[in-house]
Structure formats: C-alpha cells, structure tokens
Specification:
By secondary structure, the protein is α/β, with parallel strands linked by helices. It folds into two domains: 161 residues, S-adenosyl-l-methionine hydroxide adenosyltransferase, N-terminal (Rossmann fold, 3-Layer(aba) Sandwich), CATH 3.40.50.10790; 94 residues, Bacterial fluorinating enzyme like (Elongation Factor Tu (Ef-tu), domain 3, Beta Barrel). 18% of the residues lie in helices and 30% in strands. The strands form two sheets. It has a seven-stranded mixed sheet with strand order 2-1-3-5-4-6-7, sandwiched between helices. Strands 8-9-13-12-11-10-14 form a seven-stranded mixed sheet.
Length: 271
C-alpha cells in the first residue's frame, strides 16, 4: 500500500515554516508514509481550494490508494474583531466520496471546490488557539492519527453544503509556474458554450484589457498569441485558462491576484 500525506499551505517554498512543519509532521506519521508539499500564495484560499479539488478528485489511477490532503491557509478573516490567544478558523476532517481524506482549516474557499463531494465531514477535537503556528504545534497530531487509521479525534458531524461557501464564479483560481491563469470558469458555463474555436474575445482582468483567441488546446494557436481554452484541471468539467504560447499570460495581464474577477465580452475583440 502506498500512503501519501500531501500538505497544501501558504508558506513560501523552502521557508523556515515548511522545515518546522515537516519536522513536526514526520515525528508523528507512521513509518513508510510519504509526504509532499505544495505552496499557494499568502492567504489565497481560492488557490488552496482549487488545489484540494485537483488532487482530491483525481481518478483512482492518478493517486495513491491512501491519500490524505492537509490544507492550511488561515488568514483569520472569519471574524473582524481582535482575537484572543491567536484563535483562528477551526480544523475539519472529511472523507470524499472516492475515499480521499481531507484535513483542512475551514477558511474562505479552502473547501469550496469539493463541498459537494464529501461523503462525511466532521469538526475535530484539537486546539485552535494558543499558538500562532497551529500547523506546527497542534495539527500534526491529527495527521498522524489519520495516517494510523485512528479517527478518535472526530467530534461533531457537519453538513458541508450548509457550512462551506460555493466556489467564486468567474475569477482567477490558480496561477501556475508557466504564468497560465487557471480560472473558475468551467466547461458547461454559459460563457464557454457561446464560444467558437478561433473566435476573438475581449478580456478584462483587473484594469487590464486584452484580446484573446478561443482555442481548444494549448498548442493550436500561434507562438505569442494570448488564448483562452479548456486547461488540464477540472477532470470531467475542465476549468478554462488563459495562456500565451511562448510567453506568460500572467505577465500579459499585469500579474493579477488569485480571486480577481474576469470579464469577457462575447461581442468580439477590441476594434
């Protein structure tokens, strides 16, 4: 059996925080359980949720038999007032319908992209206050127990549809290392059904306006063209993304933040 704990956090690659978390997690995981790290931008719960869904909803042959996703992106924005003792959003434990386990801080959109895919969701018996660094000090114990098939930390069963917000509509969901802007616009959205391959569209992201070509894949446009096409994320309902062949769509749009709204003019490109 191949067991994997995949950690998704908003710490910079190779930051000291990762080193401390991995030391704490490794001290609690059973022997033979592998780990992998994925970084999202600071406080980017949209990107966190996007990654959780992409990894958690993978086809069986694309993931290990025993997969635990741990997502910690906690901007502490669930309340605007001052917090006592570094209290933050609570930790949840869930099992998706395909058997993948998810342990995540219930913050923003961190669980939004899998809200309809939970078979069960629970609050967790763990401290959520008393440390500025809960993912090092408190949460590794829960990861270790889950990896050892000890679920005694489960407390109250929850309704994911009532608790978790829907994913944001028509925004940037994730920016990859090539500068591709993965959006939350999916195949089947009224926007995408109105597109025809080769059509030129006007796109507004933030304060930047550009013209893009509707495409069917990443390589059926000319070098340097800005295009909008179904990407590699989203499985049966692909998320569409902006890419620039031989360049960076993120750079072309001025490096917009994850969560930035997208406007598309279906009447055609700029004259």
């Amino acid at each position: 059996m191949s067991d994997l704990v995949h950690l998704i956090c908003d710490y910079a690659p190779n930051d000291l925080a990762w080193a401390e978390i991995m030391a704490s997690v490794s001290a609690r995981l059973p022997n033979g359980v592998r780990t992998h790290l994925t970084t999202v931008g600071s406080f980017e719960t949209v990107a966190t949720g996007f990654v959780v869904a992409q990894l958690g909803l993978a086809d069986k042959e694309l993931r290990p038999e025993q997969l635990i996703l741990f997502a910690n992106c906690a901007p502490r924005k669930d309340r605007r007032d001052a917090r006592a003792d570094n209290e933050g959003e609570g930790l949840l434990y869930g099992v998706l319908k395909n058997g993948v386990q998810v342990i995540a801080v219930n913050s923003g959109y961190s669980l939004s992209f899998v809200r309809a895919d939970f078979d069960e969701l629970w609050s967790v018996d763990v401290k959520n206050e008393g440390s500025q660094f809960r993912s090092r000090d408190f949460y590794p114990r829960i990861l270790g127990q889950a990896a050892a098939r000890d679920l005694s930390f489960k407390r109250h069963r929850l309704d994911p549809i009532e608790l978790i917000p829907e994913p944001p509509s028509r925004v940037i969901g994730y920016v990859d290392s090539f500068g591709n802007l993965k959006t939350t616009i999916r195949s089947g959205d009224p926007l995408t059904t109105a597109f025809a391959p080769g059509e030129r569209i006007k796109v507004v992201i933030g304060h930047v306006v550009r013209t893009a070509t509707v495409a069917t894949g990443s390589f059926n446009v000319m070098e340097g063209d800005l295009a909008f096409a179904p990407g590699s994320s989203g499985y049966d309902r692909r998320f569409w993304e902006f890419f620039q062949r031989g360049g960076s769509a993120a750079s072309e749009f001025g490096h917009p933040a994850v969560g930035t709204k997208i406007q598309i003019d279906l009447q055609g490109a700029l004259k």
